Amino acid sequence: MEALLFERDTVLAAFWMTVRLTAVSALGSLVLGTLLTAMRVAPLASLRGAAGVYVSVARNTPLTLVLLFTGLGVGANLGVELSDDIATNNFWLAVIGLTAYTSAFVCEALRSGLNTVPVGQAEAARSLGLGFVKTLRLITLPQAFRAVVAPLGSILIALTKNTTIALVVGVSEASVRMREMIETYGDQVIEIFLGFAAGFVLLCLPMGLVFGWLSRRMAVAR
Amino acid sequence: MTQADLIVLDQVNKRYGDHHVLRDVNLRVRRGEVVVIIGPSGAGKSTLCRAINRLETIDSGTISVDGTPLPAEGRALARLRAEVGMVFQSFNLFAHKTVLDNVVLGQVHVLKRPKGAAVAKARELLDRVGIGAQAEKYPAQLSGGQQQRVAIARALAMEPKVILFDEPTSALDPEMVNEVLEVMTGLARDGMTMVVVTHEMGFARRAADRVVFMADGEIVEQDSPDGFFGAPSTERAQSFLAKILTH
Ligand SMILES: Nc1ncnc2c1ncn2[C@@H]1O[C@H](COP(=O)(O)OP(=O)(O)O)[C@@H](O)[C@H]1O
Ligand SMILES: [Mg+2]
Could you report the predicted ipTM of this complex, rounded to two decimals? Predict the structure, then answer.
């Protein structure tokens, strides 16, 4: 216990990094996932195809590979620099990788949400003179979102835990700090492990509760 | 075609695979006219209705609205659809929007009316169809008859040139049919151009200028309500009327 108490500032800082990685990647995944969903139902076959291929690849590639690719491929090899500061640079590389991966799952969830929206909703929208984008933005996607709040919550929880893989691009989030501490305080391995696990549970448990509540509150009555 | 013709269907054909659903359909609807389409289930009435604002494509022939052939897609099609109202059997009110927002949405996002003016117009129309007091509710909180009246207000808000009704009372409990038919009769009296698919023969007699009888994808005969109900000329129309008028 002493180790965790003694190091509580660095532990909290590490968890703060986890929270930031999660929040920024979640936002990015929501935006990119929504865009991918729109592409997958677009009238243009090429857009549908491109989004379909992207989602299949991203969903079926291990996250470690995705992050290694953004870190080594995009970062080191292609020499893309997102910031002069190496820590900031690594942070954004991790965000890109996590977003690229998670948005595929967001897209799948939203698409299944779209399938729950009766076809008459889009027909009524089109018969008012709304085009493809406005029908999606005003009528079908909002209803799809409300139908998949709970699955989106699960995706967010998975994303939170997945941020631990950001260590492969050198981001010092909670799990990295844990390893360091285990090396330093070899006599308190169990306590350290339990402490960090509790930290993740503390982060994720409320998410599940909030999303469960939201999902009931936002459900569309038909 | 003459100036008076608002909708013109010329030699329209539609197939679903081998199934020939519309066969050489010719139909003209004059400005201000109320045309009631009747016929047995599967005759192609819904398909015809939906083809007029291109919710269904057709295989051959032409459909024009107010002198303009139906555009294939894009903005031109959206513009045309805004001029052609549609009322569905299953209401199709936007489930996540309040009654008021259902009637406001198209005005703001398609007609680009200022929000204030759109809300004022929506409230006036909701009052007209007798739903003014329920404006803040969600569709699922209303009865079927109320939902369908909101759907009519939603269509009217666009100030369409014509409104298509596809069996607007078929999904309603019997006690709610009349409240919807009354609104429709009022529209007919006010000179709205209407194409109405219905099994309500009372409405057809009362409000229609012309009755069109369809069977097997064809327009079999058309006449004034008195002429059609009094003395249908084809055997198919006679047997159809005999079936529905006996109960
Ligand atoms: N999407 C579709 N795919 C295949 N067949 C269809 C489809 N929609 C309608 N049909 C067929 O077309 C015929 C006409 O349908 P419809 O226009 O709905 O008739 P009505 O409204 O007069 O009952 C029916 O035989 C129906 O089964
Ligand atoms: Mg029908």
Answer: 0.93
The dihedral sign for the CA sequence B81, B82, B85, B89: positive
Structural domain span for residue A88 = 20-172
Give a yes or no: residue A48 inside a domain: yes
Residue whose C-alpha is closest to residue B82's, from A130, A126, A128: A128
**How sure is the predictor about B244, in pLDDT bands with cuts at 50, 70 and 90?**
confident
The answer to whether position A4 is within a domain reads no
User: Are residues B46 and B195 in contact, defined by beta-carbon separation less than 8 angstroms?
Assistant: no
In this structure, which ligand is nearest to the CA of B50?
Answer: 1
CB B59 within 8 A of CB B19: no
pLDDT at A116 over 80: yes
Do B96 and A123 make contact, defined as CB atoms within 8 angstroms? no
| Confidence check: pLDDT of A82 > 70 | yes
Q: d(Cα B105, Cα A126) in Å, to the nearest integer?
A: 12
- Nearest atom, ligand 1, residue B17 CA: 4
SS3 of chain A: helix, strand, coil, percent, to 5: 85, 0, 15
pLDDT above 70: percentage of residues in chain B:
98
The CATH number of the domain where A79 resides is what?
1.10.3720.10
